[in-house]
Design a protein that fits this description.
This protein has 4 helices and 9 strands, in the order αβααββββαββββ. With about 270 residues, the chain is α+β, with helices and mostly antiparallel strands.
């Protein structure tokens, strides 16, 4: 992996476990394609295996006909009902006392290897990501969802990713969960006698250090992650960094970057 690899791709290649010795910081060493559950294995409650890697953005299907078939499926009542189910589950622990959740806009943003043999019915191969904006009692929140097709053309499996505009929404779910734990830990310990936290939203911040490679994403940036810690709403500043290989390094360290995440401050 070189410095020309995009931030999303570099993060998505990470495999190493989160270093729990310091809940406020973790380093991830990219080792190769991220491993999720075995392909085709069903997750609990119809959820999809964790996305193995963030892929470059591409059209929802690979040909005009496939694109038309896929769009007909997205407009079908079956997919609309499934989407409502996914969003309800994603909001179940986040909405608090809000009972007025309204879906505003959204649609597919990424896809990998889709095959749709029948117009209006689910794909039989591939996966795709959708991004939807909802209104949570006056506050707009974005949900990112991966869908995984089934070979028998039954409704796809799904998994909810981190909410909001975070750049990390396309990385393997294991890493996303680690980032969320860091942010929630930082928020919870700032509230006396609090032991529970829920991640409500994420927002992109600013670039802290640009890449030396022209046109490449920033090597360091921050984001604001909103956490409900008991009855308090806390905003945690998260800092993400791509650390390039060290000059003169040998072996895997000569070509592999590290991804570093840290829960910095809380307000």
């Amino acid at each position: 992996m070189t410095r020309k690899t995009s931030v999303s791709a570099a993060v998505a290649m990470a495999l190493a476990a989160i270093l729990l010795s310091d809940p406020a910081a973790a380093q991830f060493q990219p080792q190769g394609p991220a491993q999720g559950q075995p392909q085709g294995q069903k997750s609990p409650q119809g959820q999809a295996p964790a996305p193995k890697a963030q892929q470059p953005a591409q059209p929802p299907a690979q040909s005009p006909q496939q694109n038309e078939f896929f769009m007909q499926y997205l407009k079908s009542q079956g997919h609309k009902d499934l989407l409502q189910k996914v969003l309800r589950e994603a909001e179940a622990t986040r909405r608090g006392t809000c009972n007025a959740i309204t879906v505003k806009q959204g649609g597919p943003v990424d896809s990998i290897g889709l095959h749709v043999p029948t117009p209006g019915l689910p794909p039989t191969a591939g996966r795709w990501r959708e991004r939807w904006t909802i209104d949570r009692c006056g506050k707009e929140v974005t949900h990112n969802i991966w869908f995984e097709s089934r070979p028998d053309q039954s409704p796809p499996m799904f998994i909810s990713l981190l909410p909001g505009s975070t750049r990390t929404s396309g990385v393997p779910v294991q890493l996303q969960e680690g980032f969320a734990r860091m942010a929630m830990h930082k928020a919870v310990v700032s509230v006396p006698n609090c032991k529970e936290g829920v991640l409500l939203n994420t927002e992109m911040g600013r670039e802290l250090r640009q890449s030396a490679v022209k046109g490449a994403p920033a090597e360091q940036w921050d984001e604001t992650w909103e956490v409900r810690a008991c009855s308090a709403i806390k905003k945690v500043r998260m800092i993400f960094e791509i650390v390039p290989p060290k000059p003169g390094a040998t072996g895997p360290d000569a070509t592999q970057a590290r991804f570093v995440a840290k829960a910095d401050t809380v307000k």
